[in-house]
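Reopening this one. Same input as before:
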Amino acid sequence: MVDLFWLSDAQMARLEPFFPKSHGKPRVDDKRVLSGIIFINRNGLRWRDAPAAYGPHKMLYSRWKRWSEKGIIARMMAVEAVRTFYSFLTHPDLVAERIPPPWIVTDA
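Same output, byte for byte:
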């Protein structure tokens, strides 16, 4: 059995503002769909090879295509990348051991 990837509730709460508003019929579970999109891209699978737990592969692809064209996926990933980088820079265990960046010149 494949280990499926699922976004946590905290991750979904951070990404919630990026989702487009639903017009008319409510969308299927965004957490399931976005987890499926990430799983497919992370593992380099074809859309039709998506595990059934994420829903129909055509829905995953069409949502990915629509959100990509609108820039939604790119904005989500950019914000998460910046957040991860910032948390690395401010992590208390790493700050004490961090070597100064090369652009800081100190006199000895």
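So the earlier flakiness isn't reproducible anymore. For the record, The chain has one domain: 28-108.
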